[in-house]
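Bug #77: duplicate submission created two jobs. Keeping one. Sequence:
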Amino acid sequence: MVDSINPTTFYLYDKDRNITSQFGSETAVNVATDDDNYWQFEHKDASVIDAHYCTSKFHDMMKTRFNYIGIDGNSGAMDPIILSEKGLVNAFWTGENAIFGRGDCHYSPLTTLSIVGHEFTHGVTQYNSNLIYNSESGAINEA
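Kept job's structure:
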């Protein structure tokens, strides 16, 4: 779903699922925008579109199978962040957001359904347990 900030600025926002897709760097995070609502399927746009789509599918699966809505079960925002710079071949949960790398010349962006679901599951675990991310409980969290 796309919404507009003004007539020439569109952003990836899903009001029903409370998902806003963003681009990030080491110094800032900005909502992913487009000036004509014709999202180019270049490497950068494709990454954020993939992350947005996969986040919505994860949200829907959790709602349908477990009646669990949002990252915290109470409609909490699920906002994927795609790092603007190429070169990060990783994805991780920060404690607030899932961060996805755009890959490099050898690896595609890390925005597949399994990776997006894995990272947001860290958030679900965080909101539903007191696991400390260390030793056995860290291994359980990764599983």
